[in-house]
Task: structure prediction
Amino acid sequence: MATQDDDTLTGPVPDADAEPTPAELAHARRFSELIDKTLAGRTPPAMSADDRALLEVATVIRATRGSLELAPARQRAVVEDALRQAIGAAPSASGSVSPIARARARRWAPWALAGASGLVAAAALALIWLRPADPGRRPVPVEWTSRSADALIGPISRDHAGDASARIDAIFADRLDGFRTRRLRGGKP
Amino acid sequence: MRSVIPGLVLAALGIAACSGDRDPAAARSVTRVSDPSDAPGRFDLIDQDLLVALAQAKNFHHKAKVYMTDGNLTAATASVRQILSLAFPRGAPEADDVRNDARALLAKLLVSQNQLDEAARTIDEGLAQSQRESFFVANLYTVQGEIHQARAEVLAAAGDPSKASASDERRQAIASYDRSIQINERLQKKLMEEP
Result:
């Protein structure tokens, strides 16, 4: 596709009032056809470096003027997707339109997580502060509790150092008595 | 990503707050030995596990007593030893008392079988595992004194020329008895002061 006019960009700039040469006219016509093909989505696979540079400039100029429009079929697809999501249906497989709900969820998820965690922490702290006294620390008759047998047995004389059998009998009887009393009263002092 | 960090921090705080709300008994370490907080003032109620352990200890003592009456000291010793491996509820003060009492009897049985070193070891183990003073710990010191006295007699009977070892054992026996007396006095004073 290279032509003799490929020096258009690098050659001398012609006078603005000068009449276009046939070669320039031919080049302009060919370039306009190239632009038309590009707009129609039929960009030639190969072209000269100058034509490609000019085509890129033309595309940028067109885009900055805001005259770009989606193809009717594409426009319909986008609108259809948006409406489908608005009524709660799944978007089409193309996934071109990001679901509004998902976008919102993504934005609010960290704050929702932070809020929920904060609530859990606050609830746990409130539970600690407001809960009733630990039943294990509630004053109960000492007879009901597991405790040292010192008060029951007293000092052990040397003569009775080996009388462990008698002492265990006393300890067992005392603890059984405390256990039964508590059970009979339903565990209430 | 930065907005996720406050959430994670708050979640960690929540978990930490929840973890603080645990049963103190459940939070107690399995390997924790009894300490002064296990002494009077604890409010763990007597439960079936404690009664079962006490009943088993009682039965082993009775069994040992029958063996002793029969003159079978070896079987009596074995029966008393089984008390040391009974499973008591964690932190129950009675566990320390029952085990110490069993050790005292075990040591006396070993002394009667001339196993003085084993008897001394039994007492030392009991004293090492006791975390609070009690009349049962005082009793261990009493038996320890008896062991030192028995050793002194053995040394004297063996005709030790220097007599230093026997005399040393007697001194240690006196020290053990003194320790026992001191503990008993402290505990009695404490019990008298309690309402």
Notes: The two ends of chain B are 63 Å apart (CA to CA).
